[in-house]
Amino acid sequence: MIITMAKSAGFCFGVKRAIRLALEAAADGNVSSLGPLIHNQREVERLSKLGICPAADMNEIKEDTVIIRSHGVPPEVKEELKRRDLKIIDATCPFVKKAQHIAAESRKEADMVVIVGDKDHPEVIGLVGFAGEKGFVINDLEDAMNHRYHGTVAILSQTTYSLAGFESVVEYIKSEAERVIVYHTICKATAERQKEAAAIAKEVDVVLVVGGKNSANTGKLAQIAANNGAKTAVIESVSDIDFNIFNGAEKIGITAGASTPDWIIGEVLEKMKEDSVVMDEKVLNEMEAAEAVESEVTEEAAAAEAEAEEIVEAATEPEAEEVIAPAEEAVEEAPAEEAPAEEAPAEEVSAEEAPAEEVSAEEAPTEEAPAEEESMAGAYAAFSKDVAIVRRGERLTGTIIKVSDSELMVDIGAKSEGIIPRSELNPAEAEQITELFHEGDSVEVIVMRRENEDGHPVLSKRRVDADLAWEKLAKAMEDGDILEGKVIDVVKGGLLVNVGLKGFVPASLVETSYVGNLEKYKDQDIKFKVLECDKNHNKLILSRKAYLEAEKAAKAAKVWEEIEKDQVRHGTVQRLTTFGAFIDLDGVDGLLHVSQMAWYRVNHPSEILNIGDEIDVYILNVDKENQKISLGLKQLIPDPWSLVPEKYPLNAIVEAKVVRTATFGAFVQLEPGVEGLVHISQLAWGRVAKTEDAVKPGDIVNVKVLGFDLDSKKISLSIKETLERPEPEKSEEPVEEKKPKKEEELHSYAPKEDDQITIADMIKED
Description:
This protein is α/β, with parallel strands linked by helices.
């Protein structure tokens, strides 16, 4: 078995710094650390013997000096330590301290401060303390979907959180919140360590992750290794190794969490060596150079610490409505084809360097050579001048002199014609070798071998094409050029693109937002920028996201130059909120407020718009200084009230919908934005006691236009005028004519007790 060791395995900068500070303090006497200094029990036990005693909480602190570990603490904890007159050694990692600074500043400008990470992790607990009452923790994307977001939302993360997981949470919150400020606080060393774990896992059969089983950093490394196809085991010490896991394995990879000391890694490597595991010289050298603990700071470490301390003050103030803090994104290692091992070139000796044979006096040539020998020497010199001696690895240009299904024969000016086997053409060319190549064609090749069994130099066109592609891509990366290639496969973590070589586009760099399913890109031609081009390590990282952002920035710059108030622009609905819709105006977002969507009341933008709709909008206002654009939609259509006299003239009878009722009548809609009133007296020819007795909301009725007031936007309507007036009822019995009473009878009438009429009765009768 062969073992591969991760380059950055073991203590990170922050942990090394914390241990150094603790050991320096312990040299003057015992000290307490507030919580275990690192997440590795064996190292904690070793440090305890050196006078660094962990305290579970402040009440367990027994020494006068207390160390704040690299995870940091909430500000109130530090204040309490000061109140107790304890000497404080703050070993908070500078990168964690930067995140704390951002959390504290964010509470001033944001309505909500989201911290993405493990809510029980001490670093996250500290960040929440700095964020105050506005801070809360999101564990993952699923957890993010359980919250609602309002106002300005600032987002940062635990320094050891997964980049892909953080980006998925950010994209979701951006789709829900009004304004988002994103800070990438993931430690670069953590991202690099995770990237290495992914790369190693793809190349080996088994990965051992050395570290504390309660360490979040170690757990993430194990998860990444498992996700990339390798058998994975987490071990805290040599005794945890189950050698059965190596059955059938040819290659083993080893990495270690940020809390794993070199001496534990050394124990594991030594044990593997004892068990006949083959290690390359590089790994053995690393074992010999490993030290139990670094008690002195090297110049390199000191420089790194100084640089990290400066970072603490570098939290950027957000300026735009939506700010993305700069980040160094971790890019997953691109799957790369292994280049076949090259044969060592044979030593070649020129005629001048060749040792001369010793010649006896009898054999020594006379001063004057025979004419025949002179003739032969001249012929040889002429031959040597015309025939080149090919060297392995040399790049030449030749002429095709013969084409067959299996190979090309090429004249390269050597003593024998060269052969390009079908396998040394690009796959597409090999499939159509007789169609694409013809006698007389010029072709550039690299010499693979000086001679095959038939004495012909073996050549490769594929290698030349690869070299040319590397050169082109390196220049494109340097110049920032946009290139195009075809997606040939969708693999775990991204896309493989044919650019003459196989380039890798990580999933996080395919779009400007999160993409769940990458299958739709297969066999598609995409544009991209080159992020990393390393021929020596066969590593080619591409970014479609960088191309999209560059294209958007160029379009946006042009839009800001041209856009003015009162213009009409074409745009695409990007996202909807309760208060309006954001419209993409070719790279620039404008806000179409809900009140500017129609001449009538719109409760939610989704009533008239969908994401992806292409619409024309009216530019109400442009604030180029703050890069804000206000849009209108209703301004592009006539106010329906201006058409009322034409569409609804006096005495016209039209169909309408009852929208709501009141005690004095019913409001009906003639069309969206135009409503009129049918007074209760106009609901029917008979007496109507309640509006609801005649009509209800939702009823479709015919109404007659009685009049309108355009200034006040009012229309008087009638339902009864559209109905036939009923005939008055006739009595069948003749009405007896009443004779007037005599005057004395009127004066003599006195009501009886039973005949008394109350005021209420009079009103009722009336």
